[in-house]
Amino acid sequence: SLVGASLLIGAPGASASHNTGSDAVESLRRAAEKARAELESATKKWESRQKGLAESQRKLKATLKSLGAADAELDRIRGPLAGLANAAYQQPGAAGSMAIFGGGSPSEALRSAADTNHLANNQNALVQQAARLRQKHDQLSASAQELESGNAVEQASLQQQIVAIKRRSAELTRLSVAA
After folding, report:
1. Does the pTM of the predicted model rise above 0.85?
2. Nearest-angstrom CA–CA distance, 115 and 173
3. What are the C-alpha distances in Å from 71 to residues 10, 67, 74, 100, 158?
């Protein structure tokens, strides 16, 4: 009878202790499930950001390729452009067109004027092409710098996210092993 009473009295305390242990394990399970869901979500976000970073790297590569092509084109016209600048320095003004008023035939004067006009148009086109290429070069350079900067920031952010996920995973592993 005394043993029965002590079992009866001891049972609720033992049950409460068992419930407390079950509650702790259940709480740990819920935390682990929540962490697993967070880890899954973070992994999906990380994969999405990795894809975005890969696309940005592809754009950067294409931009740098275009920049190289623009530089090559600019280098190609540098020689003629330098020759034009040298000629303008050596013969300032319109001295070459004065041949029109010289002592030649009218057809020679017209031919000389047409040649001078043709050369001036070619020189003007060369200068405009150089200006367009320089502008394109500047735009591509700015775009490349922006992409490189954005990629560096994104890579650093992804690295921080990976460290945080690993830290959280290690903490959950430690807690589950301790329980």
Report:
1. no
2. 85
3. 89, 6, 5, 40, 34
